[in-house]
Amino acid sequence: MSMPIVSIISAKLVAPFQIELIFDDKHRQVVDFQPFLAHSQHPAIRAYLQPERFAGFDVSHGELKWGDFDLCFPMADLYENNIEHHHALGEAA
What we know:
Elements: E1 8-15, E2 18-23, E3 28-32, H1 34-39, H2 43-46, H3 51-54, E4 57-60, E5 63-66, E6 71-72, H4 75-80
Antiparallel strand pairs: 1-2, 2-3, 4-5, 5-6
Protein backbone atom coordinates (compact mmCIF):
# COMPACT_ATOMS: atom_id res chain seq x y z
CA MET A 1 0.00 0.00 0.00
CA SER A 2 1.59 3.25 -1.06
CA MET A 3 1.18 6.57 0.67
CA PRO A 4 -0.71 9.25 -1.26
CA ILE A 5 1.38 12.18 -2.43
CA VAL A 6 1.19 14.91 0.19
CA SER A 7 2.93 18.16 0.91
CA ILE A 8 3.57 20.09 4.09
CA ILE A 9 1.67 23.36 4.20
CA SER A 10 2.69 24.50 7.69
CA ALA A 11 5.44 23.78 10.23
CA LYS A 12 5.57 25.28 13.71
CA LEU A 13 8.03 24.72 16.55
CA VAL A 14 5.90 23.64 19.54
CA ALA A 15 8.64 22.53 21.97
CA PRO A 16 12.41 22.18 21.82
CA PHE A 17 13.09 19.88 18.86
CA GLN A 18 9.36 19.23 18.28
CA ILE A 19 7.63 20.51 15.16
CA GLU A 20 3.92 20.40 14.41
CA LEU A 21 3.43 19.65 10.73
CA ILE A 22 0.21 20.21 8.82
CA PHE A 23 -0.12 18.41 5.51
CA ASP A 24 -2.26 19.40 2.55
CA ASP A 25 -4.67 16.55 3.31
CA LYS A 26 -5.31 18.19 6.74
CA HIS A 27 -3.30 15.52 8.61
CA ARG A 28 -1.45 16.93 11.64
CA GLN A 29 1.62 15.39 13.20
CA VAL A 30 3.97 16.51 15.98
CA VAL A 31 7.41 15.08 15.33
CA ASP A 32 10.11 14.94 18.01
CA PHE A 33 13.49 15.17 16.27
CA GLN A 34 15.62 15.08 19.45
CA PRO A 35 16.14 11.29 19.61
CA PHE A 36 17.25 11.19 15.97
CA LEU A 37 19.66 14.09 16.43
CA ALA A 38 21.05 12.79 19.72
CA HIS A 39 21.72 9.29 18.36
CA SER A 40 23.50 10.47 15.24
CA GLN A 41 27.27 10.16 15.14
CA HIS A 42 27.58 12.63 12.25
CA PRO A 43 28.77 16.07 13.44
CA ALA A 44 26.79 17.91 10.74
CA ILE A 45 23.58 16.32 12.04
CA ARG A 46 24.48 16.69 15.73
CA ALA A 47 25.01 20.42 15.10
CA TYR A 48 21.21 20.70 14.96
CA LEU A 49 21.08 19.87 18.67
CA GLN A 50 21.73 23.60 19.09
CA PRO A 51 18.19 24.95 19.63
CA GLU A 52 18.81 28.12 17.61
CA ARG A 53 20.10 26.14 14.64
CA PHE A 54 17.27 23.60 14.84
CA ALA A 55 14.71 26.42 14.88
CA GLY A 56 16.01 27.62 11.48
CA PHE A 57 13.83 25.21 9.47
CA ASP A 58 11.42 26.23 6.76
CA VAL A 59 8.95 24.72 4.35
CA SER A 60 9.96 24.92 0.70
CA HIS A 61 7.97 23.37 -2.14
CA GLY A 62 5.98 21.35 0.41
CA GLU A 63 9.03 19.89 2.16
CA LEU A 64 10.51 20.54 5.60
CA LYS A 65 14.18 21.45 5.37
CA TRP A 66 17.04 23.17 7.08
CA GLY A 67 19.41 25.32 5.04
CA ASP A 68 19.86 24.22 1.44
CA PHE A 69 18.51 20.74 2.29
CA ASP A 70 21.39 20.33 4.78
CA LEU A 71 18.92 18.33 6.86
CA CYS A 72 15.68 16.89 5.52
CA PHE A 73 13.55 13.79 6.01
CA PRO A 74 11.44 11.53 3.78
CA MET A 75 7.85 12.75 3.61
CA ALA A 76 6.44 9.33 4.59
CA ASP A 77 8.55 9.33 7.77
CA LEU A 78 7.32 12.78 8.76
CA TYR A 79 3.71 11.91 7.96
CA GLU A 80 3.87 8.73 10.05
CA ASN A 81 6.09 10.23 12.78
CA ASN A 82 8.70 7.58 12.14
CA ILE A 83 11.97 9.49 12.54
CA GLU A 84 14.63 6.99 13.46
CA HIS A 85 18.38 6.87 13.31
CA HIS A 86 19.51 3.83 11.37
CA HIS A 87 22.98 2.70 12.37
CA ALA A 88 25.50 2.41 9.60
CA LEU A 89 26.57 -1.07 8.61
CA GLY A 90 29.02 -2.48 11.11
CA GLU A 91 27.79 -0.38 14.04
CA ALA A 92 26.11 -2.04 16.97
CA ALA A 93 22.38 -1.41 17.12
